[in-house]
Amino acid sequence: MRRTIVLTGALLLGAGVAMAQSPQEQVEKTQLAMKSNLTSAIVLSDMARDKKPYDQAAVDKALAELDDVAKRFPSLFPESIKGLKPAKGDFYTSPKVWTERADFEAYSATFVKAVAQAKAKIKDVDSLKAEFPDLNKVCMGCHEKFRVKG
Ligand code: HEC
């Protein structure tokens, strides 16, 4: 698991530095960032559900990665990728991301705040169990409106 996280982090770093060469490449890079959110959330949820022992370093790393993606959220969805879908995968972006942009940016800002709150509050397994559901709700709230299955 740790290896996967390091690898995802390295890929994301690369994605941040190099400008996307084409809209379709941006779509794939955006999907990679979304997958990184899942990787981080699994680290936290495994500990919250006692599937793995609590590990503060792993928590800090997962939250740092979520923070990185959260802060880049609006820039991951430029106008140029409107209507495009990743080559593989079960999900794509709703056109509402562009037609209801202010709302999408508000959801993104809520995500940044939720990660900051988690960073401030998660210090042990009990606080993780208390905080994780709130963070997860922020993921689901945005998906309900802005992510399409298909
Ligand atoms: C502000 C909105 C927003 C928030 C917050 C958000 N997501 Fe997403 N997510 C999206 C959108 C839009 C897509 C569809 C784009 C895509 O799949 O490339 C998506 C796609 C995904 C996917 C599918 C990736 C794939 O394989 O195509 C996963 C998994 C995911 N998100 C996990 C998470 C998790 C976990 C969190 C919370 C820690 C989260 N997301 C928070 C908007 C959001």
What does this structure look like?
The protein has 150 residues and is mainly alpha-helical. It has a single domain, classed as Four Helix Bundle (Hemerythrin (Met), subunit A). Helix content is 73%, strand content 4%. The protein contains 6 helices and 2 strands. Strands 1-2 form a two-stranded antiparallel sheet. Helix 1 packs antiparallel against helix 2 and helix 5 packs antiparallel against helix 6. The longest helix has 26 residues. It is globular, with a radius of gyration of 15 Å. The model has no long low-confidence stretch (mean pLDDT 91). It binds heme C. Heme C (HEC) binds next to helix 2, helix 3, strand 1, helix 5 and helix 6.
In short:
By secondary structure, the chain is mainly alpha-helical. It is built from 6 helices and 2 strands. It has a single domain (2-149), classed as Cytochrome c/b562 (Four Helix Bundle (Hemerythrin (Met), subunit A), Up-down Bundle), CATH 1.20.120.10.
